[in-house]
Amino acid sequence: MNILLVGSGGREHALAWKIKQSPLVRRLVCAPGNPGMAAIAETFDIKPTEVARQVELARQIAADLVVIGPEVAVEAGLADALQEAGIACFGPTAAAGRLESSKAFTKAFCDRHHLPTGAYRICGDAAEAKAALTHFAPPYVVKADGLAAGKGVVIAPDRAAAEAAIDDAFAGRFGAAGAQVVIEEYLEGEIGSLFALCDGKTSKLFGGVQDHKRAFDGDQGPNTGGMGTYSPAPVFTLDLVDQIDHQLVRPAFKGIAADGAPYRGVLFVELMATRHGPKLVEFNARFGDPECQVLMLRLESDLVPYLVACATGRLHELPEPKWRDDDAICVVLATEGYPGPAQAGSVIKGLDRDFGEGVVVFHAGTSAGPDGAVLAGSGRALNVCAVGADLAQARERAYGAIPLIDWPQGFHRTDIGWRALAR
Q1: 352, burial (CB in 10 Å: exposed 0-12, middle 13-18, buried 19+)
Q2: Strand pairing report for 327-335 and 380-388
Q3: Which residues are bridge partners to 31 per DSSP?
């Protein structure tokens, strides 16, 4: 097969790494890709949102399958355009992707289809949002309605902080994504991310992960797109997974199809395991980043048949995916200052060395500089990942590899996996 993979982050590098291992693949092309992906595949400098150019590239390489990585390409309607061109695509249409691209849509969707989630108010201006705070107790959850690269959620400890977050959103901090905000009930419990594949009708669960959203150790600091993950996550007991499947996953796929937008791709269910059962925090219409990295490390099955089956309506023909017994961990290295303003362009050295058994380093936000140098962007730059016989070994391997990377301008959390290890 010829496969086009759209995107340039750590999620896409991990997907490329796994897709490349399939004996079914003849040619792997990534657009735009990154320096890490360029080492294992062809790359073309085309943005995920340049829909017409992505479709033309798919035609040019005679792509048998296009795999959409980032949410911005989903929102831009890339799957719709590929469908019109008759090219198989792993990734939902823009209409199905509203489960991620609009939090207001998703909250209303949950009401219509009886999915368990927290109480909420959708607000169109700052005055309405501030008034809505009276219906909630601190800490307050303030979310930009649209896509904000994982930075559109503020957990405010008091009303003053919540009102400041509301003012920021309506002042344009998140651009068009903040034209509406959603005020939500703060859910108590343990958070986790469960993934499921769907081909429009049939669905299959596809692994569980736990993320660390806050920037600093001890779950302190601002929310980010994710500072590290591990899998499997002990929070996902067999009973909880069954509840999530029947109360969230299957109703979501059934509901979005009933709304006229059958879902083809992967659905990322971020949930809170509360004392009242699982409740939806949010849906994402793609593999998570950095959740995808640990899933790909643990996936024993060939990924490509599952991608093809989702795109072609044949998921029912495949067995349940097989997973390695190993634990996997991902530690994110980001530019100092992230998720706030940060200086792009610092040089990362030492990436060509052997990092030891079980360690894989994925590029998340890098670019090629002069003379083959690897330059960091202004956000998350690298994912240092490892597998081990248990989480403790995987963690030791990953953290042992980080000092081998020469990048003084980077930072990382030192406590990834603490919840599982504390058990």
Answers
A1: exposed
A2: antiparallel
A3: 6
Report H helices in 86-221: 98-101, 103-113, 126-132, 159-170
Tally of CA atoms within 13 A in the half-sphere of 177 that contains its CB:
21
Do residues 256 and 112 make contact, with C-beta atoms less than 8 angstroms apart?
Answer: no
Task: State the residue for tokens 């791709």.
Answer: 265
Q: How does strand 181-184 pair with strand 120-123? A: antiparallel
What is the distance between the alpha carbons of residues 244 and 374, in angstroms, rounded to a whole number?
41
What is the DSSP code string of 296-350?
HHHB-S-SHHHHHHHHHT-GGGSPPPPB-SSEEEEEEEEETTTTS------EEB-
Name the phi and psi angles at 154, rounded to 5.
Answer: -120, 125
Q: What is the DSSP letter of 123?
A: E
How far apart, in whole angstroms, are the C-alpha atoms of residue 63 and residue 19? Answer: 14
pLDDT exceeds 90 at position 423: no
Residue pair 228/295 in contact by the 8 Å Cβ criterion: no
| First-to-last C-alpha distance (Å) of the chain | 44
Contact 360, 375 (CB under 8 A): no
Q: Are 295 and 383 in contact (CB under 8 A)?
A: no
| Tens-digit pLDDT profile for residues 305-325 | 999 999 999 999 999 999 999
Looking only at the bridges linking them, the beta strands covering 2-7 and 65-68 are: parallel
Q: Are 186 and 200 in contact (CB under 8 A)?
A: no
CA distance to 19, 21, 265, per residue, from 308 (Å): 12, 15, 10
Query: ω before 70 within 30° of 0 (cis)?
Result: no
Amino acid at 54: Q
Confidence label for 215 from pLDDT (cuts 50, 70 and 90)? very high
Q: Is the pTM of the predicted complex or chain greater than 0.85?
A: yes
Tokens encoding 77? 């309607």
Portion of the chain with pLDDT greater than 90, in percent: 94
Residues 6+ apart with CB under 8 A from 177: 144, 145, 146, 147, 148, 152
The residue type at 13: H
